[in-house]
Amino acid sequence: MNKRELIKLKKKMKVKGNHVIFSLVFLVLGYMIAFSYHLTQQSDNKKSTITSKQWERDIELRNQLVELEEKNRSLQKELNEKQERVREIEKELSQEAQIYFNLAEDTEKYRMYLGKVKVKGQGVEVTLADGAYNPDEENVNNYIVHEHHVFKVINELYISGASAIAINGQRLSHNSYILCNGPVIEIDGYQHPAPFVITAIGDSEVLSSALNLTGGVKDSLVNDNIQFTLEKKPEIIMEPLLGS
Fold first, then answer.
1. What separation in angstroms does the CA of 27 have from each of 22, 23, 176?
2. Is residue 206 situated within a structural domain?
3. Where, by residue number, does the polypeptide cross the bilayer (predicted)?
4. Residue 156 neighbours by CB under 8 Å, 6+ apart
5. What is the per-residue pLDDT across 166-186, written as a single tens digit (0 to 9) for each?
6. Cβ distance 157 to 198 under 8 Å?
7. Are 200 and 161 in contact (CB under 8 A)?
8. Between 82 and 3, whose confidence is greater?
9. Measured in Å, how far apart are the chain's first and last C-alpha atoms?
């Protein structure tokens, strides 16, 4: 082999060597690109999977929240209805309680008028006594107390708001009767001589004012020669009636 052929052979070998190097470089570069692309795809898939699961979880939580809010509104509505019913029941009970209270109060008042219960309170005490003896007076009845005199005082006291009345300690009831029997008066079968002490429970100011009206009960009795005295009492006690 001559020198020229040797040089040509060296050039061919050099070219082939360069081709091999470039081939290796391109092979490694291609591998790196392929590997990098594969990693990127895996990362994207993983991110996509996480995002999808999270989105599904958010939807589920949102649905649960909506369901709880609807249930809460329903319970609130039911609570409002029950509270309204409770208020209605309380109002009904209040009205019933007031009715029962009024009935109890009326019952106690009727018992008091019937003389079935003991009563105590302020009031007045009126004393009616026979007039001074006048020897020139032919008719003795003109200066003694009669039942109609007693009735005038009793009626005025009841009209003025007296809740209970007694004569000489004997309490009057709704069906009491008073009769004149000579120098005494008879109350429900019991005789009482003069003077007649009439006690009444009620507003002492009102009762005394009613009896002292000009031209009223007091003036009428005094004109009939009846001795009339009136006293306010801070406390009067009357025992209940006994028997029937």
1. 8, 6, 138
2. yes
3. 20-39
4. 210, 211, 216, 217
5. 999 999 987 888 888 877 899
6. yes
7. no
8. 82
9. 170
Distance CA 62, CA 78 (A): 24
pLDDT tens digits along 19-70: 556 566 666 666 677 666 666 665 555 555 557 778 778 888 888 888 888 8
CA 6 to chain centre: 127
| Residue 243 resides in a domain | no
Query: Omega before 195 cis (within 30°)?
Result: yes
Distances (CA, A) of 176 to 148, 184, 198: 14, 16, 14
How far is CA 31 from each of CA 146, 198, 221, rounded to the nearest angstrom?
Answer: 144, 133, 142
Sheet harboring 170-171: ordered strands across?
A: 170-171, 164-167, 196-201, 119-129, 227-238
Domain coverage including residue 175? 121-238
What are the CA-CA distances from residue 100 to residues 51, 94, 104, 106, 114 (Å)?
72, 10, 6, 10, 20
Is the pLDDT at 139 greater than 80? The verdict is no
Inside any domain, residue 136: yes
CATH number at residue 229: 3.30.70.1880
d(CA 177, CA 235): 26
Residue-level pLDDT at 15? 47
The answer as to whether 160 is a domain residue is yes
User: Whose structure tokens read 């069906």?
Assistant: 175
Report residue 36 as tokens: 């990098």
How many structural domains is the chain composed of? Answer: 1
